[in-house]
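Let us work through a complete example step by step.
Step 1: write down the sequence.
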Amino acid sequence: MSFPLQADSVVEAKLDELLTTVGEAFGGDALTWHGPIQFGVDSVVRRVIEERRQRADGDKLVVLLTTAGGIVEVVQRAVDVVRHHYQTVDFVVPDYAYSAGTVMVMSGDTIYMDYASRLGPIDPQIQQGDRLVPALGYVEQYNALIKKSQKTQLTDAEISVLISSFNQAELYQFEQARELSVSLLKDWLVQYKFKGWTRTETRGMPVTLRMKRQRAAAIARLLSNTGRWHSHDTGISAKVLREELKLQIDDLDGDSSKKEAVANYHGLLEDYMMRRRHFGVIHMVDRYAPYDYH
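Step 2: predict the structure and record it as tokens.
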């Protein structure tokens, strides 16, 4: 007995086909993470990858990441999972990867962006009830009020805010999230992104481990500088990353096969997610896993 085709199964089969094409264009398996980085999604990533590894082997993974950010501890576990299974991991940013997403991207061997792609300041978020709160803005506001209090410049309204709105335990949690983000970014840049950086571009001098650490620390300082970027959702282009942060970003626009494969897949995925009202999705070939965690 035959059964009529379901629209969703047809679309998901097409998404598998297009994601296969993405993997072929980049020379490895392909995984999509589209949505917030929240507790529980790292477990979905683990299950999906382990299922894929039972069917296929290979040493390279390309991750298509689109996210407004989230929880850095989830990023840490997800990267540990990915690196357990794959020797080489490339990241593609079809649209944007902010905050904790930017930290995750820095764990890649190669980062691909086009002229419109955006990363963001590394402003980790903390789960507060049913919402995510950017940590750096909270800490910076507290520090600004403390500085004013030291100069006896606080208004009555600011005194009230300082007393009623800031929880010391939360402040500590936020500061630790920031420190973890900076620490991971520095370690991953040195271990992965800079592993092939052997000579300086201008003078051709040998690159030492100390030089790699200094460059990683400088990038971390800039990306965590709220005064420079002003907003949690500030978009940082590939051009700015190359020129101001001196970070090598591969140009997705420069390779038509990669660009077309990513654009075709990403366009259909976003249309399907919108139609199905999917909050977030983890996708590898033969495993489309929507999630909705709040």
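Step 3: interpret the result. The chain has one domain: 7-291.
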